[in-house]
Amino acid sequence: MSFSASQSSDIEKESHSDPRIHPQRRLLTPFLIDKSIPRIPEDDERAQFPFLQRKRHFLNELFFLWCFPVLKVGYRRTLDPNDMFKIQPGSHVDVDTVTNRFYTEFESKKDKYEKKYIKSHNLEDSEETRRIIKSNPDFKYPSNLLLFSLLKSIKKEVVLAVVTRALAEGAGTTNPILIRKLIKIIHKGAATQQVDKTGYGFAVGIALMVLFQGLMFASNFHLGTFVGSEAKGILTKVLVDKSFKLSREARLKYSPSDITSLLVWLEVI
Q: What's the whole-model pTM score?
C-alpha cells in the first residue's frame, strides 16, 4: 500500500514551469511504467492528422489505434488544444481546400442548369443572356443544387459512411440467422445426446459477426461525425465569404443579425 501511495504521490508532485499543465491521477496511475508528465508541444511540433499520411494502415483506422498517443497523454495530464492532431493547410481535409471543391462543384452545376435553360429557349449563350435570365422569374435553380454540390465535394467520406452503415446493418440482420441455426443444433444435440461439431463453427461465426458489426458501427459513427464537421465547415466559410460580398440591396435585405443567426444555427446542427 505504501509503495503504491508513494508512486501516486510522485505523479501529484510532478511540476512544470508551464501553468497550462495539470497532472491527473487516474485509477491505473500507480501501475504506469512511464509516470513522467509530457510537455505541451509547440504548434510546429504537433502531430499530423493520421488521415493525411501517405502510408495509412487499415487496422490502424479500423481499431482506432491512431487515438492511442492522445489517450496516453490525456491519462497523465489534462489535454491541451496543442495536443490535438494538426491539419496542414492545403491538405485534402483543410477547410479552404474542401470549400474550393464545393465552389467548383456549385459553379459547375449552376453553369449546367443555365446552359440547359438557354438551349431549351433557343437563346444565345452569352454573359448578357445569363445575367438577364437570372432576373427572369421563370428561371429557377433546382432546390437540391446546394445539397448535391455539398455531397459531391465530400463524396468519398459520404460513400464510406454509407458503406460502413450498410455493412453494420447487414451484419445485424445476418446474426439472428446464425443464432437460430445454433439453437437448432443445440436442441438436436440435447435430443439425440450427440454433439454436432458444426455448432462450434456457428458460435465462432456469431462472435466474429458481433465484432464486425461493432467495428462497422464505430467506423460509421466516426465517418458520420467527420462528414458533419466538414459540411458545417464548408457552409460556415461560404456564409462568411458571402457576407463580405453582399450588394447594397442584399445588405438591406439581410442584416448582420440575420447572418449571425445563420452562423449560430450552423453551430447548433
A: 0.79
The one-letter amino acid code at 256 reads: P
Instruction: Tell me, letter by letter, the H, E, C secondary structure of 227-267.
Output: HHHHHHHHHHHHHHHHHCCCCHHHHHHCCHHHHHHHHHHHH
Residue indicated by cell numbers 433557343 = 122
Indicate the pLDDT class of residue 77, thresholds 50, 70 and 90.
very high
Indicate if the pLDDT at residue 257 is higher than 60: yes
The three three-digit cell numbers of residue 220, written as one number: 460509421
> Is 93 within 8 Å of 49 (Cβ atoms)?
yes
Residue 94 and residue 79: Cα distance in Å, rounded?
A: 23
- Separation of alpha carbons 173 and 213, rounded Å: 10
DSSP assignment string, 153-202:
HTHHHHHHHHHHHHHHHHHHHHHHHHHHHHHHHHHHHHHHT---THHHHH
Dihedral of the alpha carbons of 141, 143, 147, 150, in degrees to the nearest 10: 10
Give the tens place of pLDDT for each residue, 150-163. 999 999 999 999 99
Provide φ and ψ at 123, rounded to 5°: -105, 160
